[in-house]
Amino acid sequence: MIDAPDGVRVTARDKEVGVRILVVSDIHANWAALSAIDEPHDLCLCLGDLVDYGPDPLPCVRWAMRHADHSIRGNHDHGVAQGIEVGGGHGYRYLTGLTRQRHWSELGVDERRYLLRLPLTQRLTAHGKRYLLVHGTPRDPLDEYLMRDPETWARRVAGIEADIVCVGHSHMQFNLVADGVVVLNPGSVGQPRDGDPRAAYAVIEDGRILLKRVEYPIEEVVARTEASDLPEQAKRLYAEGLRLGRLPQAAGPPQGRTV
């Protein structure tokens, strides 16, 4: 298991590139899911959205500060770091609006600074491959919501100087080739939306991409949320999403831009 980080801030490390890469995204303050990942690796890539929704923002941000060699900003990281208020009484906008200020308050100065300083994109080279990391798409790194659509992805990666584009945001796990570029979405660690409630992530080993899942104690996360002072409607919405591994019907379908 991954050890829970202590209170000492450790920045992302500059290490020699290894041959086994752990890729995680969309953790959303779900420490139980994140800590269930037990994968040896030489390099860790984090594709954003450490916060909002879940009960444990602090250990998740501290984990990224210590373990992620390359991290980028997700739209929820941006919203919490910038104190962007979210209106609306429906679905996940409603849940975001309730948890955002709480998460800002629960983070310390170092964790807030970490979120504020996360870049929108990062580039690196590993095992002879050029990587581009974005949360949404290369056209709109924060907000564009694109599913497994090779034709649209081909337009988004046209002219991109990269062999592998790693993305998150949609909470949908996939690996496809578009216009000669590999597009990898490891899925969501903390809140999958593809019908499989297990934590999703990816491992790249010697250039081979492995899409992986791991079970974690969902009911423990639900119990922690039930013990909070969130409104009952929010508790039900969050618990149903975790148990189903998808957006509850009440939350509505994903739109082009999300919060």
Automatic annotation (TrEMBL):
This protein's name: Phosphodiesterase
| UniProt-listed SUPFAM superfamilies | Metallo-dependent phosphatases (SSF56300)
Output a single Gene Ontology CC term carried by this record: cytoplasm
Question: Into which family does the record put it?
Answer: Belongs to the metallophosphoesterase superfamily. YfcE family.
Q: Which organism is it from?
A: Tautonia plasticadhaerens
UniProt xrefs under PANTHER family:
BLL5683 PROTEIN (PTHR42850:SF2), METALLOPHOSPHOESTERASE (PTHR42850)
| UniProt GO molecular function | phosphatase activity
- CDD domains in the cross-refs: MPP_superfamily
Q: Which residues form the Calcineurin-like phosphoesterase domain?
A: 20-204
